[in-house]
């Protein structure tokens, strides 16, 4: 069975899914829904599916953080292929519980409201690793809880409520993140800091900001990290991303706490933008949910704005107050919780601002320049087509191009068989993402131009 098809019940089990009619936002392909054959058209959580998997045991009530992981215990050692069945842990914060899948077809619930063992109070963040360790930001109880997924159930291990000797106690921890090394990162919102711990809760360091850069964290609420030893991070470059100031600021730090980049919401061309829950993909792009805007903002590793995906609503390509976000970097799978459920998407790509200059070419008149932007690193093919849509030249054939601005040079007005005849033509660009979605999705864009008569001798 395909690993993506295996995910259908996993996501449904975590917070349930449902198919909804398409919307006007569907022309965006920065994020895409899996093809019908992989999930039978199911990609949105609804309370109906919660009932199918869990009956009357719970209700969807203020979903928050979400984590997706391939558990080593679920791997089939008898196969050489990757039999990925992701386990998805979703916080149902209003009912102080975790909903998670135990198999392809089954789900379970852990937790309840309170401050004792097996209880949480308004938990906001969750992270998990392949060994089955699960960490919860138990926000209302001012602590982090460590659990272990074992024999298809969650088991209470211990509580962390102190940052370390001389560092005081945690206050309203809002988010947790796990590095590939097992290092635990905690958004200690009430203390305006990020606390770095071992998996056993031993204090390693504290990030208050960067005094030399004049940046002090204020109520950090979103957190994501990648470490150099993560097998699924490009170029093995690590950093920590933090959102604070009520989502008005987004910053990245190195693992020693030195500031790398920082932006505020007014730096991006998206009115009223907010940076809340965060995730990082294989190439180091940062994704941030924006609850009020019903969208997800995407920025590159240097926090340069790439695009925003979605809008408020209940249709495809729309979000109903998106909250938590997690990303399985190997295959580019994205899981987002929202007010009434969750969504499952894949990383796709968009071609933006395609242009050829000059727009009128003359044989022998010099080169032309083709410019465009990509919202994801992609395999790109660029062709020249005539007025009847026939390819007369291939300028780029299935070559990798990076996220952001790209420019290609063309010996203008020449095709595969020599100078082009006068008439109407177009540059056609096709881009497909390098993730698994590239087998099923691509974006096509065209930009017209005109070839004039050759210059008189």
Note the topology:
Elements: H1 3-15, E1 31-32, H2 36-39, H3 47-54, E2 63-69, E3 87-92, E4 97-101, E5 107-110, E6 125-128, E7 133-138, E8 143-150, E9 153-160, E10 162-164, E11 168-169, E12 173-178, E13 184-188, E14 193-197, E15 203-207, E16 209-210, E17 215-216, E18 222-226, E19 239-244, E20 249-253, E21 259-264, E22 278-280, E23 286-290, E24 295-299, E25 305-309, E26 325-328, E27 333-338, E28 341-347, E29 351-357, E30 360-361, E31 368-374, E32 378-386, E33 391-401, E34 404-410, E35 414-415, E36 418-419, E37 423-433, E38 443-451
Parallel strand pairs: 30-38
Antiparallel strand pairs: 1-28, 2-3, 3-4, 4-5, 6-7, 7-8, 8-9, 10-11, 12-13, 13-14, 14-15, 16-17, 18-19, 19-20, 20-21, 22-23, 23-24, 24-25, 26-27, 27-28, 29-31, 31-34, 32-33, 32-37, 35-36, 37-38
Helix pairs in contact: 1-3
Keywords:
5-stranded mixed β-sheet, mainly beta, disordered N terminus, Immunoglobulin-like, 4-stranded antiparallel β-sheet, 3 helices, Neuraminidase, 2 domains, 457 residues
């Amino acid at each position: 069975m395909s690993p993506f098809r295996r995910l259908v019940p996993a996501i449904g089990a975590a917070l349930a899914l449902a198919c909804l009619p398409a919307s006007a936002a569907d022309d965006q392909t920065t994020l895409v829904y899996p093809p019908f054959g992989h999930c039978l058209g199911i990609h949105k959580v609804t309370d109906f599916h919660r009932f199918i998997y869990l009956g009357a045991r719970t209700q969807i009530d203020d979903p928050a953080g979400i984590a997706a992981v391939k558990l080593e215990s679920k791997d089939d050692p008898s196969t050489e292929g990757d039999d990925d069945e992701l386990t998805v842990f979703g916080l149902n914060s209003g009912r102080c519980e975790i909903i998670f899948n135990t198999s392809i077809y089954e789900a379970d619930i852990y937790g309840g409201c309170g401050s004792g063992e097996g209880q949480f109070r308004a938990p906001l963040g969750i992270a998990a690793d392949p060994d089955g360790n699960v960490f919860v930001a138990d926000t209302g109880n001012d602590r982090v809880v460590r659990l272990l997924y074992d024999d298809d159930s969650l088991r209470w291990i211990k509580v962390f409520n102190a940052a370390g000797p001389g560092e005081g106690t945690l206050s309203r921890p809002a988010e947790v993140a796990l590095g590939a090394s097992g290092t635990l990162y905690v958004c200690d919102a009430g203390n305006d800091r990020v606390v770095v711990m071992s998996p056993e809760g031993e204090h390693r360091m504290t990030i208050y900001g960067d005094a030399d850069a004049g940046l002090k964290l204020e109520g950090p609420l979103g957190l994501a990290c990648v470490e150099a030893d993560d097998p699924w991070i490009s170029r093995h470059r690590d950093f920590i991303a933090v959102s604070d100031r009520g989502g008005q600021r987004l910053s990245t730090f190195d693992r020693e706490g030195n500031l790398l980049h920082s932006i505020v919401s007014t730096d991006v061309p998206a009115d009223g933008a907010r940076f809340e829950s965060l995730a990082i993909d294989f190439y180091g792009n940062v994704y941030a949910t924006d609850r009020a805007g019903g969208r997800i903002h995407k920025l590159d590793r240097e926090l340069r704005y790439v695009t925003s995906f979605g809008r408020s609503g209940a249709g495809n390509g729309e979000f109903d107050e998106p909250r938590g976000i997690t990303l399985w970097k190997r295959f580019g799978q994205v899981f987002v919780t929202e007010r009434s459920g969750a969504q499952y998407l894949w990383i796709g790509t968009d071609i933006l601002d395609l242009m050829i200059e000059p727009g009128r070419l003359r044989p022998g008149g010099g080169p032309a320049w083709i410019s465009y932007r990509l919202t994801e690193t992609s395999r790109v093919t660029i062709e020249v087509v005539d007025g009847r849509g026939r390819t007369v030249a291939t300028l780029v054939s299935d070559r990798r191009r990076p996220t952001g601005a790209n420019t290609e040079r063309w010996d203008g007005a020449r095709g595969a068989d020599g100078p082009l005849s006068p008439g109407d033509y177009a540059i056609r660009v096709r881009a497909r993402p390098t993730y698994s979605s590239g087998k099923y999705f691509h974006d096509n864009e065209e930009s017209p131009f005109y070839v004039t008569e050759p210059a008189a001798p």
